[in-house]
Amino acid sequence: MGEKQYIDIEDFVTRMREHWTTNLSNVSSKELELTWRQLAQAFKKNILSHTDTEQRDEWLVVQPPTGSGKTQGTILYSAMLPHKVDTHPGVLIITRLKAEADIVAEQINELAGESTAVAHHSDTNTSFEELREWPVLVITHKAYELALDYLGRDGSIRDTFEFFHSFDHNEEGRRKLAVVDECLDIVENHQIDKDGIELVLEALKKAPGAWRNEKDMLQKLDSHLEQQRIGLEINPQVFKKERMMVDYCQDLDFSSLRGAIWEKDIKWEKKITGKYNVEVRRDIQRRIDNILKALEHMAKQFVYYAHHNGNQTWNTARLLVPEDVKGAVVLDATAGINTIYELFDKAVVWSAPENVRNYQNVKLHVSTGHKVGKESMSKNPQSICRDLLSDLEGRFSEEDDKALIVTHKDVEPVLMSYNPKFEMETGHWGALQGRNMWQDCNKIVLFGMPYLPNVLTMNAYQVFKGPVSPDLATEDEKEHMDQTRAKLKRGWLITDIIQAFNRVQCRKVTDGEGNCEPTEGYVLFKSMDEAQQIIPVIEREMPGIEIVWSSMMETSKKKKTRVSRSDAVDSFCKFLEVMDQGECSKTDVQNHLGLSPRKMDELVKQARDPESKVGQAMLENEVTLKQKRKGKSLIFNKP
């Protein structure tokens, strides 16, 4: 029969207990060990289901609570597998971050006592062909998405797992265990607007070849947007609605056109802007290629119109799971509140063991009546940041408290331009999961809510249940669509909130009862209604948490304390990091961060010095500084 290709469950739990308490200096408990047992059961089931036609397509979703050792358990299990290559099942681990992939592979090799795992991402040199030789392969979500684009140019998802799932050292030639750490983004979204359509139409005038069908699709999409624009002026309530477009060009293959965009002898910047510039050329090539990629999927999937915040767009999406691919084990602590698993018929969600965590040492202060959306907070970021920090200085201790403030991407650099009396760390939505750098913070403040665009809920619904045009749906269909989209949006919001909370010190279990170090959280909601929908779910997901209804940032006549400013170096470096692609003038940067002209001039001087911290940030983020004409404002450009 040969050596088993899975680990005995009791052996794994015993080794995990030893690893958890001795190597990692943590505290074990019966409840934690139930979590580890479930982890081993899921891994074993996934390995054995490889040849089971009924179960091999299942995606097992396990919900180990935050801080219960799901990543360490995956590392240890991979290290315990048979060391002989010809008896190894082959493992694929998908993580969110490149640094995390490196650490996972390194720790597997350390525990195994030999090189059995390799990380593959954009910073590694391992070729696709080499990957099939390694028993354990660790990749990122992004690497997976890029492989889909590289292998699935025809719009299908068939065979796009090939490079990552192939394994040369078993009879089947495939990896038998696939593990996704954190929720996998299984829906890929695409969107274009009128500016994007016009950019590609202009490029097509100069591109070699006729591209008649491609032009026809673009012109049709452009014409429909113009009709919608006119309709909005006549009847805004009707024409703001989402609607499907059914008479578009199907089965177009944009791969040849995408290849032509990258031909070296085409000076796109000269043809479009009238000037030669390699950086601009590269930027235009990337923008056009991204638009063509979206158009390609629109031709293969579905297209619908949406109007959001004054912007008219065409949208589509696709499911990033091949029909015949073997399922994986998904480790998602918040799976119970993510409606995507209800829509994904291949997902089998296992209930989490009870009483693993106890959050009785966590106090959550809840305040309502705030402007917390991205757009509203970006209008006057200096004022709201100053008001928040002034409020927090009255609550936090200068000596004992270290606070993580999570906010929107555009607001974070403004926060960092201040230097409050307490120790402050910052982070922004979309860049929190998988990061453990804030686990010594005893305070956390959620300053802004990560509301996702409505088009994302529509995309998810259409991928799993569509295509269904909202304006043509029956009353029952429309009701089901609206309820499902509302659940998706609320679930994604709560998931982000809970994931953020578990970045600080409450993530670590400190005793056999599942407790954590004392932690205080502060969350600002736009309304009492929103808070009352979300807080009960947080109480269920974080059992024992104490809720305190508070008032923060009150605009009364009470005098606010003055908050000191920082030297702005870290603030400006963060701005360069989160800056969107395109141009931003020196004046706009200065106004956004609230800097004096003298301070801005100092930062510009440092930006020109590659040895300075600012200069290094310019290089790392590929930002360049230029002046279009003498006497005109300096421009920061990010390709």
Q: What is this entry, summarized?
A:
This protein has 639 residues and is of the alpha/beta class. It is globular.
Main attributes?
single chain; 639 residues; six-stranded parallel sheet; 20 strands
In quaternary terms, these chains amount to single chain
Mean pLDDT: 87
Shape field? globular
Secondary-structure class: alpha/beta
Describe the largest sheet.
7 strands, parallel
- Low-pLDDT residue intervals, each spanning 5 or more residues: 151-160
**How much beta, percentage-wise?**
15-25%
Tally of alpha and pi helices: 24
Give a count of the beta strands, DSSP E runs of length 2 or more. 20
Radius of gyration computed on alpha carbons: 26 Å
Distance between the first and last residues' Cα:
57 Å
Physical arrangement of strands within the biggest beta sheet: 3-4-2-5-10-1-11
- The helix content, as a percent range, equals 40-55%
